């Protein structure tokens, strides 16, 4: 392999070129002396790689007979051959930047010096030939020479006979201190120096009066080469390597020196280096696992890199063919055998130029500096105080950051709210302009929605045309949302699955139908009571200044008149076009009741249990909810006894009976009146329902009810909340509250104890509050029994807080709940006309509903998201902006009747959250929404005027 090819191989192998030491054997011819003694040779070169010992002596027959090496040179081989085939390749590696060493090992006078001189000369000649043939490269050659004698290192180029110290250099390994290194001018210069070294060595040996070499000589030629094409300003790499020509002292043992004193000492030292060399080679031949005793001798220390290190090595073992030297020859072969096993790992030694080195170092420095910056100072071990201070500092900084971020967030939110407000106000203003004057129309239209969706479309197109987001697409798809609401992704949860669609019919549908008819039949009485209420509310309105009495009266009358007039009332028209009694047979009602139960349960199950009364109350406290005074005022205007009085009237027409066949077309209010009463009478059991009115003793309604105290089985008794057997039950259930009721039933006795009007008022108020709380508790119990949706509970709870005018609503709520409870109870018990609805089947149906809803919810939200959604639902409502967004969304949802109860409750909740002084144009839209929604969920408030 040529030098160039070798380099290629080395460069391609980043791990270096691993190869074994090249070992050659050279047999010299018998010299004259040996010939004279007939010291014939027993060694025979079998071929170019093997040498064999042919002994006729029986005692040596046990010796190994043949040895194989990289190359075996016989007595006829020339030094040129030895060089070419055994050393050249290794020696010339130096010009390619690879360290190399050529050893000559053998006993005294075996021809080491003879061979090494020739190898050195040939190498130098080839090196210079290589340099001359590579003009593109610039070469610098340096020469140095050392002699190791008695473990002392001598500089052969120096005339001073001063031993040199060996130093350990981290990069170069072991170096000889103060060693003379001549930069060669040319080839002749090198020859002169080599000759000088030879003379120097011989002088020393002559002084020993010995012909044989007692020292180890190392001639060292260092070659640096770099490409000439690079300018000085450019960074270029330089190859640098050293070739060692090592002529070792004779390897014979000290014992064979037959000398004592100084000679023995010399022999010991000589052998020390040689023995160490042998040990190192032997150990290296077995691998590099154990300790390699390079440092045990100067020789091995200096040649450490050449022995199993970074460099290529060739050993030429010289042998004397004389029979008398057969032992040393055999030892030489054993050494050679071991050396053959040693492997080296040569690398190309690239020296970076100073400029390149500076650049490289600068880069490294920059990298380290950046690393240093990134590194946080490590706290001292055990220094908990400093660690604590450091942590506190970090916390302090984080606190500052949090404050700053919070401030920025609040600022951004404030700006967004302002922006939204201005945008929303502009849109709602347009809406309000087009709709504010058409409230009665809206109501009428709304009443038509259930039976005719086209009317709603008309409603959209006429009244909501300014809502540009109500697109034709949305009209066809009620579940699609106004893009206005999707500007904030958080609104998404309000749009679909956050309020899961309820399966089945509207649970309140029957109730509404019934209540509507009851209301329709109670028109006359309504007016009477309304007058009283209006008188009462007049003061409130004036005090608050929210609405004028005229406005309220106008609104009320307008609504009532539109309702009363069968010709103009859209609802009535509608009812005539689509018979409301369709499906309102006994079986139909039972089925509806069953569906109602399912749906109620489903609604309740949609809300986590923590949304209980207590949590709502707590949330209310936390949010400091304030019921709108305006709303309160308007609520007070609603005739409380309308339904009751009209039902009272209906008692007289009840004879139409429960068995009325409803298949025919309805003909006016009389027919409907009979229908309503028939339904109530046929399906309800009133054993417990009369207790409702026990808490309404201070109202006009209660007074009316009290007059009719005997009939416990009629529809009217249920509707008017008769006392009967249930009175005792209420006494047991209500406990101390009954006492309060009794007190109220005897107001005169109480008032006798008070002396001033003021005290009377206080006492009356106190009693009412006690009564109110009692009613609240009863309603809550009934809510649970009827599985009333929590949104409705929230709505009711927020709206009615104990104002005296709340009494009527409390009463109606109690009756409604009794109605629902009775219907559920009947359905569950499978009573009436062989109805087969059982508790088990109801539960199964309920479970199916639950599973279906759960699947829907899971599709849209994960459990975590659902929880967050519920929380968010409540929390976000506290802000006005959010409330308006929700209101807008609800507005669009009026198309979707499955959500109507929930929407109504939420809108009402919004009203409860908004203070009167916060009412703005946006709230007009909200009020319309409430108005249209409220009729379905709370039909007894159909005629109420909205607060804004
Ligand atoms: N291959 C050879 N052909 C002819 N003569 C040789 C050969 N090898 C050695 N000689 C001669 O043998 C004698 C001893 O050789 P050399 O001095 O090289 O031995 P050595 O191993 O260096 O001995 P020492 O270790 O004592 O220095 C020399 O006179 C040399 O000329």
UniProtKB/TrEMBL annotation:
Matches recorded under Pfam families: DUF3490, Kinesin
Binding site for ATP: 106-113
Limits of the Kinesin motor domain: 20-342
Comp. bias intervals (Basic and acidic residues): 742-759
Keyword entries, A-Z: ATP-binding, Coiled coil, Microtubule, Motor protein, Nucleotide-binding
Biased composition regions of type Basic residues, renumbered to the chain: 724-735
Similarity comment: family membership: Belongs to the TRAFAC class myosin-kinesin ATPase superfamily. Kinesin family. KIN-7 subfamily.
The name this protein goes by in its record: Kinesin-like protein
Organism: Cucumis melo var. makuwa (Oriental melon)
């Amino acid at each position: 392999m040529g030098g160039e090819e070798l380099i290629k191989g080395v460069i391609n192998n980043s791990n270096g070129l691993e190869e074994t030491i090249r070992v050659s054997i050279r047999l010299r011819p018998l010299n004259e002396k040996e010939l004279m003694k007939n010291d014939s040779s027993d060694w025979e070169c079998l071929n170019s790689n093997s040498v064999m010992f042919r002994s006729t002596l029986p005692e040596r027959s046990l010796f190994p007979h043949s040895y194989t090496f990289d190359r075996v040179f016989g007595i006829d081989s020339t030094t040129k051959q030895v060089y070419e085939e055994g050393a050249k390749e290794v020696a010339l590696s130096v010009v390619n930047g690879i360290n190399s060493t050529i050893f000559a090992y053998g006993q005294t006078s075996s021809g080491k010096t003879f061979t090494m001189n020739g190898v050195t000369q040939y190498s130098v000649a080839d090196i210079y030939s290589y340099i001359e043939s590579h003009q593109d490269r610039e070469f610098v050659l340096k020469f140095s020479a050392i002699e190791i004698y008695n473990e002392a290192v001598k500089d052969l180029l120096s005339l001073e006979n001063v031993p040199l110290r060996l130093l350990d250099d981290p990069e170069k390994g072991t170096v000889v201190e103060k060693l003379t290194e001549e930069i060669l001018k040319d080839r002749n210069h090198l020859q002169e120096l080599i000759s000088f070294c030879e003379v120097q060595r011989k002088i020393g040996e002559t002084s020993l009066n010995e012909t044989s070499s007692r020292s180890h000589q190392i001639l060292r030629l260092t070659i640096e080469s770099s490409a000439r094409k690079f300018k000085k300003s450019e960074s270029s790499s330089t190859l640098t390597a050293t070739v060692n020509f090592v002529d070792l002292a004779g390897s014979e043992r000290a014992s064979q020196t037959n000398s004592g004193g100084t000679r023995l000492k010399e022999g010991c030292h000589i052998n020390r280096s040689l023995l160490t060399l042998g040990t190192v080679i032997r150990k290296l031949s077995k691998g590099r696992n154990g300790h390699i005793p390079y440092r045990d001798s100067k020789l091995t220390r200096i040649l450490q890199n050449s022995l199993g290190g970074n460099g290529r090595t060739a050993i030429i073992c010289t042998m004397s063919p004389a029979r008398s030297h057969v032992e040393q020859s055999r030892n030489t072969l054993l050494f050679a055998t071991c050396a053959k096993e040693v492997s080296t790992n040569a690398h190309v030694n690239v020296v970076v130029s100073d400029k390149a080195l500076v650049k490289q170092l600068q880069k490294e420095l920059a990298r380290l500096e950046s690393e240093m910056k990134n590194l946080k100072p490590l706290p001292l071990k055990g220094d908990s105080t400093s660690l604590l201070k450091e942590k506190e500092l970090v916390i302090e900084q984080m606190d500052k950051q949090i404050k700053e971020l919070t401030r920025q967030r609040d600022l951004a939110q404030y700006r967004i709210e302002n922006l939204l407000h201005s945008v929303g106000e502009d849109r709602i203003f347009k809406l309000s302009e087009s709709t504010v004057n058409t409230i009665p129309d809206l109501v009428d239209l709304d009443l038509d929605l259930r039976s005719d969706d086209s009317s709603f479309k008309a409603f959209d197109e006429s009244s909501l045309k300014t809502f540009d987001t109500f697109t034709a697409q949305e009209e066809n798809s009620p579940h699609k949302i106004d893009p206005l609401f999707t500007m904030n992704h958080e609104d998404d949860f309000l749009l679909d699955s956050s309020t899961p669609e309820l399966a089945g019919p509207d649970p309140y549908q029957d109730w509404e139908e019934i209540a509507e008819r009851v209301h329709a039949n109670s028109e006359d009485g309504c007016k009477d009571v309304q007058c009283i209420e209006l008188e009462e509310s007049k003061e409130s309105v004036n005090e608050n200044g929210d609405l004028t009495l005229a406005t309220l009266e106008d609104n009320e009358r307008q609504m009532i008149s539109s309702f009363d007039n069968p010709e103009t009332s859209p609802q009535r028209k509608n009812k005539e076009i689509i018979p409301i009694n369709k499906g309102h047979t006994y079986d139909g009602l039972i089925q509806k009741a069953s569906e109602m139960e399912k749906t109620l349960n489903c609604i309740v199950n949609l809300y986590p249990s923590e949304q209980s009364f207590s949590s709502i109350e707590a949330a209310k406290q936390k949010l400091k909810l304030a019921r709108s005074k305006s709303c309160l005022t308007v609520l007070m205007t609603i005739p409380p006894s309308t339904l009751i009085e009209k039902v009272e009237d209906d008692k007289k027409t009840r004879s139409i009976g429960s068995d009325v066949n409803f298949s025919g077309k309805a003909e006016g209010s009389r027919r409907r009146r009979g229908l309503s009463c028939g339904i109530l009478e046929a399906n309800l059991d009133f054993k417990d329902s009369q207790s409702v009115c026990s808490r309404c003793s201070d109202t006009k309604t209660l007074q009316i009810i009290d007059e009719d105290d005997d009939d416990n089985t009629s529809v009217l008794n249920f509707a008017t909340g008769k006392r009967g057997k249930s009175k005792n039950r209420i006494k047991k259930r209500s406990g101390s509250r009954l006492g309060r009721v009794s007190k109220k039933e005897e107001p005169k006795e109480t008032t006798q104890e008070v002396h001033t009007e003021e005290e009377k008022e206080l006492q009356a108020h106190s009693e009412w509050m006690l009564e109110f709380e009692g009613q609240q508790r009863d309603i809550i119990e009934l809510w649970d029994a009827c599985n009333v949706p929590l949104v409705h509970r929230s709505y009711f709870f927020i709206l009615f807080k104990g104002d005296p005018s709340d009494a009527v609503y409390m009463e109606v709520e109690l009756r409604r709940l009794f109605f629902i409870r009775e219907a559920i109870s009947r359905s569950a018990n499978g009573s009436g006309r062989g109805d087969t609805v059982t508790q088990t089947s109801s539960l199964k149906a309920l479970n199916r509903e639950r599973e279906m809803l759960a699947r829907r919810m899971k599709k849209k939200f994960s459990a975590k998201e659902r929880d967050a959604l519920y929380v968010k639902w409540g929390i976000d409502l506290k802000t006005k902006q959010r409330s308006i967004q929700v209101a807008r969304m609800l507005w669009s949802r009026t198309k979707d009747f499955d959500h109507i109860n929930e929407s109504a409750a939420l809108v009402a909740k919004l009203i409860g959250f908004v203070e009167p002084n916060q009412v703005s144009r946006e709230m007009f839209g909200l009020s319309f929404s409430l108005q249209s929604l409220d009729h379905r969920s709370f039909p007894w408030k159909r005629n109420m005027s909205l607060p804004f």
